[in-house]
Design a protein that fits this description.
This protein is mainly β. It folds into two domains: about 1-80, no CATH class; about 85-148, Histone H3 K4-specific methyltransferase SET7/9 N-terminal domain. It is about 0% helix and about 65% strand. It contains no helices and 13 strands. The protein has strands spanning about 5-10, 20-25, 30-35, 40-50, 60-65, 70-75, 80-90, 90-100, 105-110, 115-120, 130-135, 135-140, 145. Strands 1-2-3-4-5-6-7-8-9-10-11-12-13 form a 13-stranded antiparallel sheet, with no helix packed on it. The chain is elongated, with a radius of gyration of 18 Å. The two termini are about 35 Å apart.
């Protein structure tokens, strides 16, 4: 975790995992499981909730691995957008659903935080784009189209 984080509560769980609450210098807050590495550094590991900034408007709730969002989780953005699904190394990766603040949605496969693989994008006019996505673009069988 970032330097300057202050641990305010902690309890030991099984197999070296601990649970606690950390408040960071910018007002961000983490509540959940963590481990202490051989170096002495404490890293988020297991399940927990991270609220970004003093206002906590952006928030991630889900699984962590070695201080990164990893596994299933939910990220709420300050814009009102929401992603629910799989993460790998802090990126959307695997199956998930992203809902933009304007109501458009994409449900399907993600790779490195881009729509990638089979999926369905529904735009603000409720037009559905279903099929293959590559690196964030929809493939209509002839060409790649930027849908977002």
């Amino acid at each position: 975790m970032a330097r300057g984080a202050v641990k305010i509560l902690s309890k030991v769980m099984s197999e070296g995992t601990q649970e606690g609450v950390f408040v960071f210098m910018d007002g961000s807050r983490y509540e959940g499981q963590y481990i202490q590495q051989d170096s002495g550094e404490m890293v988020r590991h297991g399940t927990g909730t991270f609220s970004c900034g003093a206002d906590g408007i952006e928030q991630y709730q889900g699984s962590w691995k070695n201080d990164k969002m990893y596994g299933k989780g939910e990220f709420k953005f300050a814009s009102g957008a929401l992603y629910k699904g799989s993460f790998v190394d802090n990126l959307f990766d695997g199956d998930g659903k992203y809902t933009w603040s304007d109501g458009a949605t994409y449900t399907g496969s993600w790779k490195e935080s881009k729509m990638h693989g089979n999926g369905k994008y529904i735009d603000t006019e409720h037009v559905a784009w279903k099929g293959k996505f590559y690196n964030g673009k929809y493939f209509n069988g002839k060409t790649y189209i930027i849908v977002r």
